[in-house]
Queue: 2 jobs
Job 1
Amino acid sequence: MREVAVIGIGMTEFGELWNRSFRDLVAEAGMHAILDAGIEGDEIDAMYIGGMSSGRFIGQEHVGSLAVEVAGLEDLHIPSIRVEAACASGGVAMHQGYLAVASGMYDIVVVGGAEKMTDVVGAEATNILASAADREWESFFGATFPGLYAMMARYHMKKYGTTPEQLASVAVKNHYNGSLNPKAQFKRRISIEDVLRSPMVAEPLHLLDCSPITDGAAATILAPLDIAKKYTDKIVKIRASALATDTLSLHGRKSFDSVPAAYHAAQRAYKMADLQPKDIDLAEVHDCFTIAEIMAIEDLGFFERGEGGKATEEGRTAIDGEIPINTSGGLKSKGHPVGATGVAQINEIVMQLRGEAGERQVKDARIGLTHNVGGSGGTAVVHILEVI
Ligand code: COA
């Protein structure tokens, strides 16, 4: 296997982008990444594009071909593959791109992710997202993702004493970080009281405990390490790319207080990188709901089980804390265009490792981790990156 580096990143602003089309977003993210890498379009060997449900959100399938056309690369006839794993589509596309370069099959690979979610009304977006749960046994009976994660939150609260204030402290931190990110959907700072006073969506999760419905796209360019050196001297190497799965349904799991697929993906990633949780300088985790971030920092081994809420409340995951989590604002504040999220997480870590994160820069960041989850945890992907 060859060593693989990220040589380019690009993303659009995230938000309700009613004046932008899906193809616009794909083109903008891809063009930024190509310019950032300093490559010519005709050097690209293949593309992997993460997308969850463009067919239902905007009536457009076949986005592999669409990405080639908007990039103006149709005459190259390169392979371009759409990858789907619900909210982990971007992370899984990254894993596929990594494997393609590591194996020696392709040299320069574009990994993208895009979703245009706000062209349907909210109830329809909820219904489309719920197709990533178990349709026969969960969503058919009315379970939604806020509902499923609310069950996890209640279980965590009962078992460990996690409090509504601790859940809210995740949202407060991530909105603060998002206020420092020009590309975030929500740039406003909020308080614990704001979260607790916001409308209840699925008890105990309030509106401000939830990630939003978002439009956006992100892209990265991968290359083998030896070729990467030709393009940039700020090389960010992929130390690990690990994927794990679990039951599609939440009710099929033995426990609700963690996401076992994320735990197993993390264990594999640490083994592959020969690193431990204490070696990680910062992480972008899948905070689709505040409870998800608390479970993530426990599954990743940053804190003991049951300690994630308390650690967040104490500021240990803030930008200047011992392990900064979601410096971008996370899904909660930066936004969650599902197919793009896993790739946008890589963008943030690469910016941080290159020292380009501006006001939200983590001091001396050298090793970063991304954690991207599909549905209630049927799929999880963990990447570890290091600047060399
Ligand atoms: N965080 C902060 N503010 C939010 C928000 C969120 N998650 N969602 C909406 N808002 C704001 C809107 O900007 C709007 O503000 P405004 O009145 O100042 O313009 C207001 O709240 C109402 O927005 P609206 O779009 O009517 O909200 P909604 O009630 O239709 O949807 C949720 C709110 C929480 C139900 C929706 O965002 C949601 O379903 N989130 C979860 C998405 C999800 O499940 N993703 C997959 C995870 S696995």
Job 2
Amino acid sequence: MRILFLGDIMGRSGREAVKKHLPTLKEKLKPDAIIINAENAAHGRGLTEKICKELFELGADCITTGNHVWDQNETMLYITREPRLLRPANFPDGTPGNGHVVVEARNGAKILVANYMARLFMDPMDDPFAQARELASRNPLGKTVHAIFVDFHGETTSEKMALAHMLDGQVTAVVGTHTHLPTADGQILDGGTAFQADAGMCGDYNSVIGMQKEVPITRFTKKVSSGPMQPADGEGTVCGCLIETDSNGLTKNYGQVIIGPRLTNRMPDF
Ligand code: FE2
């Protein structure tokens, strides 16, 4: 089974890039399931029902998020009606929505998708490590589900790498999101779990992590705010990865996906 994951969609540039390149990726890579982090899809802040519906129509089977999930008020209600939209599982008890869901791939296989938020340099959260360990032990690969995909939304590479090693051999893949920059550390760990510290964003890379450059530069240099940040609006580049599972639900092939006008493009050759 082949799972395509795309990192944080950032504003209109990201949405347009996904719309433009996803058909090509589907044709070339033939994914059985598509998972997309879209927590910055609505002008850089959260996501809307309309955007989610567009992504489902384009072929997304599950949408993951992170710290910006509630930036648009409507999402709190929409998430209660749409189980394929996830918020981080380690938000406090009583938060609307769910942090994991089982989706059916095009080949009929069941994929457990789980979304956690890291804690270093992020808002205080329940322990993602304890929750992920518990989820993996309740869902042995190949028994109740054919694959387990974890989107770990966080700032630091070390925390994301530690979670991946902790889950190695128990889940199909741990892929990080949130920093909006793709890392070059993609690999299959010893136990068969694919790992990449950050998938990178789908958005305009002629920017400061997806935002127009002037305001962030002023904030860093003058310690004053020169207005709200606005998403960069140039042509977007799509970033993500492709994972191919073996008969046990572990990863037999992993490859980075980068397609668009910025960054060195990469396309898996399996
Ligand atoms: Fe984020």
